[in-house]
Amino acid sequence: MDATRWLDEREDRAWRGYRRMRRLLDLELARELTQDAGLSEADYDVLSDLSETPQGRLRLRELADRMLWSRSRLSHHLTRMQQRGLVTREECADDARGSIVVLTPAGRQAIESAAPGHVAAVRRHLIDLLTPAEIDALGALTHRVVDHLGGRAPHPRHDLEI
Fold it and tell me: If DSSP codes are grouped into helix, strand and coil, which group holds residue 161?
């Protein structure tokens, strides 16, 4: 068995700083999104993913994969969003077990109303705190990690709240 490669002081400081930053940033962005637009982060993710498609439609399976959620968890969340009139579901013509998630006019209005404030919060709490070189570095490192992890199957417990 290989010996554990413990983090040195510099690496540990970076790792713990990243974890703390991620938690605080996620909490603040979620708080502002809920306060300003009445949407959860998951609502926003669903609505933005749908709004970025040509007809505001995605297969439930594809949406679940994008969100790194189980289909069951997404289905339960979509039921709550349907009750609020933000999305609807249609049967999939070529797969009787599949369904299509459709953005409603109310859902489109919700994402269009929420997006400017959310982008302003992302700028205020992250982007505007960085230099152009730091933004480039952040983009490079995040894509490197995503590319590294992208080929892996999601962890069986990936849809637990973190």
Answer: coil
